[in-house]
User: What shape does this take?
Amino acid sequence: MFSLENSIQPYAWGSHRAIAELQGRRAPTPEPEAELWLGAHPSAPSHALPSKQSLLKLIEERPNELLSAAVTQRFGPHLPFLLKVLAAETPLSLQAHPSLAQARAGFAAEQAAGIPLGAAQRNYKDDNHKPELLCALTPFHALCGFRAARETLELFGALESPLLEQALRPLAAEPNPSGLRAVFSQLMTADPARRSTLSQETVERARAALGRSSKYEAELGWTLRLAALYPGDVGVTSALLLNLVELTPGQAIYLPAGNLHAYLAGTGIEIMANSDNVLRGGLTPKHVDVPELLKVLDFADGPVPVLTGSARGAARAYETPAPEFELSRIELSAEPYALDEHVGPEILLCTSGSCAVESGPHSLSLARGQSAFVSAADSAPTLRGPGTAFRARVGSFAH
Assistant: This one.
């Protein structure tokens, strides 16, 4: 067991306050801070303290000790999950992640084509999939999955635009995933002039409809904000096909492969399979590959389940189908709380108050924003607060 030093990703959409304030540093920061990575991804591995050794390197040298033989056999000598603190001051791109088979095929194809891993046009940074779960630390807004087809027709009807109604005709004819696929594909692959026209029409009609259709006021408001950031981007129109989800602290959403989404604003704890594969469709200055995105998208429609977690004593566990990870939120008091089912690697992150961690003869004290790695070889940890801790571990296959 040891404390971790973690890397910050300075993406342009990041916050100048959230991660710094979590870690007790001065804010606002000169540069945006978008994601704090806790794990062993090759792009930005954590480091053990006080030795400053890379967690990636340590796991490569001692996989069975740090991960367990069962985890190594299932996932190879790699930490299966990546934990993040995500802080969005402005919206992220419209994006989706591939399935495992799609990631392996896409990575192999780009390797064979000789595209450098760091190239801007690279889609697949690794050969892994990226199911993910986000749990809100603050009020959090996201677009996630395709809205029920009939509700989307109602929303676009409220815009009272013949041009947009024409674009939605395939969905009116087939108000189901097939119709959504047809509409989204036509929007995203239209010629540049038509994409710009549709985006401008969406903005004008949304502005006119604000105050007239209270059911979709929030969606229309976000349309104007997205358009101000990305004028002429047809992603402004496509975003209106998606569910707008508003999470309160402690609520979470799970995003399987193929889920089209865009995080809009807020700070959350994110856990995922250990991958950095992102296929973008718009609302970004980064590389966009619409044909590749269309290959991986799931057009199933309907509301997004909001997870509140299953109670396990002082903890709430957010259960998902992903075997690579499980996230729990633990509200700690001064009374000791023993972590159950410690059978593999874990990362503990303190997000409020303080957290004392004891494992056999070893102990650590984590302040707000600090984290620790607990190996499979360590004894099951006991935690004390008062504070809030997040526990990241391998999913249910190992428990």
Observations:
- The CA atoms of residues 81 and 274 lie 5 Å apart.
- The chain has a mean pLDDT of 95.
- DSSP finds 13 helices and 21 strands in the chain.
